[in-house]
Amino acid sequence: MSNETKIWNVYLAGEIHSDWRERIEQGVRERGLPVRCTAPVTDHAASDDCGVAILGEEEQPFWKDHKGAQVNAIRTRTHLRDADVVVVRFGEKYKQWNAAFDAGFAAALGKPLVVLHPEAHTHALKEVDAAALAVAREPEQVVALLDYVIAGRL
């Protein structure tokens, strides 16, 4: 076996309106874990407008959204396929259909899935939770889970 340490690719999918990604990234750095975090584009306006900004305007909102979703899927699918672990966060606000899709896609790819959401979402996300190998409530739990999985530290 090589003396090099494996760099774990952790894809952070889902909710974009809170600091949960930064908390995980900071925790991973503080623990010195060999982790590379990737994510979708988290600038909401850029994510919504990328298709028409790059490929041209659409008259109907449906086609604008469709074009943007396809452009964003290039990044999302690539990072999901490359991930060693996928963390999907469902936040307090908005219906996060994209997060549910990412969780399902990760499960279909056989990726280890960690779901992160508040207790209040437990019933609504029961099928997603059933596909996950772990369900966390706070980003710090995800950091502790990664520390255990990667370094064997409790």
User: Strand-residue fraction?
Assistant: 5-15%
CATH class of the domain at 8-42 and 83-151: Alpha Beta
Provide the succession of SSEs. EHEHHEHEHEH
Number of strands: 5
What is the fold named in CATH at topology level of the domain at 8-42 and 83-151?
A: Rossmann fold
What is the CATH architecture assignment of the domain at 8-42 and 83-151?
3-Layer(aba) Sandwich
Q: Based on CA inertia axes, which overall geometry fits?
A: globular
Helix content: 40-55%
Mean pLDDT: 95
Question: Major beta sheet, specifics?
Answer: 5 strands, parallel
Radius of gyration: 16 Å
How far the N terminus sits from the C terminus, by CA atoms, comes to 25 Å
Describe the structure.
This protein has a five-stranded parallel β-sheet, sandwiched between helices. With 154 residues, the chain is of the alpha/beta class. The mean pLDDT is 95. The protein is built from six helices and five strands; from the N terminus they run E-H-E-H-H-E-H-E-H-E-H. The longest helix is centred in the middle third of the chain and has 22 residues, at 61-82. Helix 2 crosses helix 3 (61-82). Helix content is 49%, strand content 15%. The radius of gyration is 16 Å and the shape is globular. The chain has helices at 20-30, 44-55, 61-82, 97-108, 126-131, 139-151; strands spanning 8-14, 35-38, 85-89, 113-116, 134-136. The protein has a domain at 8-42 and 83-151: Rossmann fold (3-Layer(aba) Sandwich).
